[in-house]
Every structure is written in C-alpha cells, then in structure tokens.
Amino acid sequence: MQRLTQFVSVAACIAVTAAIALPVAAQFSKPEDAVKYRQAAFTVLSNHMGRINTQLKSSTPNVQFIQTSAGVVEAMSKLPWDAFGHGTEFVTNTKALPALFKNDAKVKELSEKMQEEAVKLNTIAKTGDTKAVRTQFGVLAKACDNCHDDFRAK
Amino acid sequence: MQRLTQFVSVAACIAVTAAIALPVAAQFSKPEDAVKYRQAAFTVLSNHMGRINTQLKSSTPNVQFIQTSAGVVEAMSKLPWDAFGHGTEFVTNTKALPALFKNDAKVKELSEKMQEEAVKLNTIAKTGDTKAVRTQFGVLAKACDNCHDDFRAK
To answer: Is B152 strand, coil or helix?
Structure first.
C-alpha cells in the first residue's frame, strides 16, 4: 500500500518521513475522510462486480454491460489502498480488522494480486468471451475473498 | 439520466415500461442502494478533483498525479446518473433536492455537459499542459456547480 503518499509536497514529505510514518495519506485531510473514500471505492467496485455477476447468471448476458463494468472494476481496484494509512485503524464504522494494520506485507501482496486479476478480467471482457469472463470473474472474486477472510469483519 | 436501466432483463423491461416507470434502476436492489452508490461515486470524484486542485495550487504540480486523477474523474463522471431513479427521492440522508426529480431534462443536460467537460479535462491532462489543465479544471468545476446550485442542498 502506498502509505507514503502521492500528494504530500516534497518538502513536507522529506521533513516527515525521515522520522515517522505519516499518520494518514495526505490526500485525505483526516482519517475519517480516508475511510469514507476507501469505502466509496469498494461500494462502486462491489456494485459493478454484482452487475457482471447478474449478466453471467443471465441466459443472454449482455457483453457490453460486462465490458463497461469490468472497466469500472479495474479502475476501482487501484484506488482504496493508500486510504488504509496509519491512523485509519482508529476510525469506527469500518469493517477493517485490526489485523489488517499489522500485516502490511501480506495486505500489499493480496491487494496487488487482486488488482492483477481485475486487469485480467477487463482484458478478457474486451474479447467478448463470456465463458472466459466467467472463469476470470471467479478468480477475481476469490482474490477479493482472500483479503476479506482475514482482514475484514464478517 | 438512464433511468430505464441497463440491467433489467428485456422481458421484464418490456412488461414494465409499457405502463409505468421503473421505481429504481434494476442494478440496485433498493433505492437506498442506489443512493449509496451515487454518493460513493461522487465521493471518489470529489476526492480526485481535490487532488488535482492541490497539484494546481502547488508551485511544482505533479503532472502524473494530475493525469491519474483526471482519469478517475472521467470514469466517475459517467456513473452516478442512473442511480437517481424514481423512488430514490424518498430516501433520506441525501443532499439531492426534490427539484432534481422534477426536472429530468435539465438534469440530463447538466449531467451530460459535466461528463463532456470531464472527458476534456482528461484529454488535456494527457498533454501535460498544466496551464490548460487549470483552465479546464475551472470549466469542469463550474459544470458541477451548475447542477449543485439548483439541485443539491447546501
């Protein structure tokens, strides 16, 4: 996760990161904003996974709808990760478990894997091969679950 | 706004739209989900408008950050509109004013204009011309405000 963030000014970044980790990525003015942002990205992502799933369950899946949503899924898959910065573990009203903030390497690995699978889904969707989309959709859903299993409250 | 929705099966669509408007776009299981979705899309959009603004205020704007966020802004600009379906005007905890649901044509016009300006921003961002980005950012912000002024609670 890109905790040491994109939007700190260079000077501020040098000043702070030499000694301590930033409390929360600087594109968020406070931890609550980061939580709201990551939840928003997941809300959109989840909705479009659902839309794809609806099509895949249909006897006449609409390839264009799948393609549109696969594009949104790929775009969303990149966004939430730098909103899990330190400080956000103290925000209530989130399903993120304390373990998430103690396992940076594992979470990074899982999030990168998930992003890879989302890219693949979008690439496959563009071919219009619904059967291949179905397979990759399952792979991506599993990649999501791999993180949810350990790091998200039921 | 695409109220008559992408994800209704054709049969259901024909059966229902002949007589009445769908209560809410069928990619949402209930109006509250539609409101949550559109708010999520606006949250992500707003955050990335903020990120671009931060760069534009900087004496050393990071073109790559602007480009990344402009891509997200364009993607998000397309999403919220079919989540303003009929039925969602009765959901509380939203800033959408009653007038929004009584002015379909105007809202459609404003939302399409906003999307056009978001596409332009992303196109200009790709050129790396920060001055041109600043101008178009202002145009897009105005296009957002044009809807907020009449249809969003302060």
So the answer is: strand
Nearest to A2 by CA among A71, A112, A82: A82
B60-90 confidence digits (pLDDT tens): 999 999 999 999 999 999 999 999 998 899 9
Say whether B79 sits in a helix, a strand or coil. coil
Number of C-beta neighbours around residue A39 at 10 A:
19
Tokens at B142, concatenated: 């105005």
Would you call A27 and B51 a contact, using CB atoms and an 8 Å cutoff? yes
Beta-carbon separation of A58 and B6 below 8 A = no
Please say whether the beta carbons of A118 and A71 come within 8 A: no
Residue of B7, B71, B79 with shortest CB distance to A65: B7
Q: Which residues contact A30 (CB under 8 A, 6 or more apart)?
A: A24
SS3 B18: coil
Q: pTM for the full model?
A: 0.85
